[in-house]
């Protein structure tokens, strides 16, 4: 009897631990919050840039990524003085200065977009463009538009998002903030709750702090319904690095054989 009760107790303990783990949040530590600054796209993207600045890519923001102590530099990273002067309150379309901020590379506020608006199609270009401008030439990003299909039902979109968070890569989401059925806003996501199917992140226009919302498609009446995502990393994926390494090795052997006068068939 005693052994049976012990086994039951161990099973109950393991079950309890499993349920506890399932209900726990998964979140990337150290993602900074930045208040809205000349566009939700560049501000949400700027939070992601700020995170990577403190995690091995210190040229992305001159100085620290802390808004309280380095606000001017962070604002310049998000939207430079040249960006504001050339595109805010104007109908300018052609580049009027060399792109030098996230907002520039995202084409924020450029005609035909209203002040502060950014095209979803430029979110990946914006993050990569600014990273390359800062010296990180291997930066990669990808936009994915979430359409009404079975990828919602089978969890593909959710699993992809969770995989990015699990790999400590914050994600930008394109959402319908006001629940009118049309996506209109960008947020930075740094975590998820697998038990509730909710995202955890920051809304640039809401300074109250952490924002939680359902990971669900855009629909009338659904606040923060999701239409798409932007995944970003300042370095290539490991598979890409491996291919680059193989290419470099082959090139090196080729140079060696040429120097030695060895014929290659």
Would you write up a description of this structure?
The longest helix has 23 residues. This protein has two domains: 209 residues, Alpha-Beta Complex (Cathepsin B, Chain A); 27 residues. Strands 1, 2, 3, 4, 5, 6 and 7 form a seven-stranded antiparallel β-sheet that branches. The chain is built from nine helices and seven strands. Strand 4 and strand 5 form a beta hairpin. The chain is globular, with a radius of gyration of 23 Å. The N terminus and C terminus are likely disordered. By secondary structure, the protein is α+β, with helices and mostly antiparallel strands.
Instruction: Pick out the low-confidence regions.
Output: 1-23, 237-265
Q: What share of residues are in beta strands? A: 15-25%
Helical run tally: 9
Query: At the third CATH level, what is the topology name of the largest domain?
Result: Cathepsin B, Chain A
The CATH architecture designation of the largest domain is Alpha-Beta Complex
Provide the succession of SSEs.
Answer: HEHHHHHEHHEEEEEH
Report the top-level CATH class of the largest domain: Alpha Beta
Biggest sheet features: 7 strands, antiparallel
Kindly state the mean pLDDT as a whole number?
Answer: 85
Instruction: Indicate the overall shape.
Output: globular
Number of domains: 2
Please give the share of residues in helix: 40-55%
Task: Indicate the structural class.
Answer: alpha+beta
């Amino acid at each position: 009897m005693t052994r049976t009760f012990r086994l039951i107790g161990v099973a109950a303990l393991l079950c309890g631990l499993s349920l506890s783990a399932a209900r726990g949040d998964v979140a990337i530590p150290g993602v900074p919050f930045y208040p809205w600054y000349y566009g939700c796209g560049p501000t949400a993207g700027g939070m992601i840039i700020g995170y990577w600045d403190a995690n091995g890519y210190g040229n992305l923001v001159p100085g620290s990524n802390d808004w309280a102590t380095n606000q001017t530099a962070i604002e310049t990273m998000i939207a430079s003085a040249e960006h504001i002067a050339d595109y805010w309150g104007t109908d300018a379309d052609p580049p009027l200065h060399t792109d030098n901020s996230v907002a520039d590379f995202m084409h924020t506020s450029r005609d035909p977009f209203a002040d502060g608006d950014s095209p979803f199609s430029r979110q990946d270009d914006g993050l990569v463009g600014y990273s390359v401008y800062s010296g990180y030439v291997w930066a990669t990003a990808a936009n994915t538009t979430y359409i009404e299909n079975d990828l919602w039902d089978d969890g593909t979109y959710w699993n992809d998002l969770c995989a990015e968070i699990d790999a400590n890569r914050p994600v930008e989401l394109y959402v319908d903030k006001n629940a009118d059925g049309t996506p209109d806003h960008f947020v930075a996501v740094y975590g998820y709750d697998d038990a509730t199917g909710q995202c955890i992140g920051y809304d640039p226009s809401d300074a109250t702090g952490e924002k939680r919302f359902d990971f669900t498609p855009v629909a009338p009446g659904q606040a923060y319904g999701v239409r798409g995502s932007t995944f970003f990393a300042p370095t290539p994926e490991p598979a890409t690095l491996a291919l680059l390494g193989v290419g470099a090795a082959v090139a090196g052997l080729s140079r060696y054989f040429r120097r030695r006068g060895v014929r290659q068939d």
